[in-house]
Amino acid sequence: MPNDTNFKRSSSELGDSADWRCTCCGKLLGRRHGAVVLVQFARGHRYRVSRPASAVCRGCGTLNET
Fold first, then answer.
1. What pLDDT is attached to residue 8?
2. Which of 5, 39, 40, 58 satisfies CB 3.0 to 4.6 Å to 30 for a cystine?
3. How far, in Å, CA of 36 to CA of 45, rounded?
4. 12 by DSSP, 3-state: which?
5. How far apart are CA 54 and CA 10, in angstroms?
6. What is the DSSP letter of 56?
7. Residue 50 has what pLDDT?
8. Residue 41, number of CB atoms within 10 A of its CB
9. How many Cα atoms occupy the beta-carbon half-sphere of 37 within 13 Å?
């Protein structure tokens, strides 16, 4: 499950990026980085997803799109 500490990187590593948060509860879903979204789950699973992307928040169940 993504959380704030999983996505802390130096600005030189990520460049120009922004948080992708749930529109309902504010839980961190990923990091938008240009045309891709970086998503990280528990146990070290990491994904790069091209935009547009959608995800269901694991906290409240809201469907989110970026």
1. 52
2. 39
3. 16
4. helix
5. 26
6. E
7. 95
8. 12
9. 19
Burial status of residue 12 (CB atoms within 10 A of its CB: 0-12, 13-18, 19 or more): exposed
The parts of the chain modelled with pLDDT lower than 50 are 1-2, 4-5, 7, 10-14
The structure tokens listed for 61 are 């169940």
Residue 15 is predicted with a pLDDT of: 58
Q: ω into residue 52 within 30 of 0, thus cis?
A: yes
Classify residue 65 by burial, with Cβ atoms within 10 Å: 0-12, 13-18, 19+.
exposed
Here the tokens at position 24 are 């309902």
Which single residue is written with the structure tokens 């948080």? Answer: 19
The number of residues in the chain equals 66
